[in-house]
Amino acid sequence: MSQPSYTIRTISPDEKDRVIKFLRRFFFRDEPMNLAVNLLETADSRCAELEEYAASTLEDGVSVAAVDENEDYVGVIINGIARREEADYTDKSEDCPNPKFRRILKVLGHLDREAKIWEKLPSCDTVLEIRIASTHSAWRGRGLMRVLCEESERLAHSIGASALRMDTTSAFSAAAAERLNYKRIYTVLYADLPYAPQPDPPHTEARVYIKEI
User: Hey, which CATH number is domain 7-212, 3.30.1330.130, 3.40.50.2000, 3.30.70.1110, 3.40.630.30?
Assistant: First the structure.
């Protein structure tokens, strides 16, 4: 029996509500740091700060989705554009009113500062950041993430980026980055950060990867 077909397309900024609805179902509850701090305590729980963070780069116009024959999402990658001239390493977690999500933001800020990507990419001024990747549970194992990452790479070329970045907070996303030939440039154990959530194994560390194109 043939598999259902899908189409890859760019996500419009006005699809924010659809994107967040998809991530609530297939990403937010499974992400290791979210689980470790019990960020979403019940089936109906929402975290406004998490949702705002997730949607914050949709305006960049470089996020991509796989949609089925009914135009429903079956996979999404939320991307953002980072520019050398706009690098800002201030600790934004201090402004977060949610104490659980504040701990997560603090880890993400640590990765941003300590990876020092601009030092490792001396001739690069623009990077496409792969920020969130999620697949519908019924569509996993069909290579959707690879196709979406390839489309992200094409978009990176189109905006003049000469590298992509992927921060991984789970063992699964780290393995995916390595399958896609990303180069690991920074690793930290959650146990070495006193403020960090402590996910269950095998999710023991966060990593930063880059891929020059």
Answer: 3.40.630.30
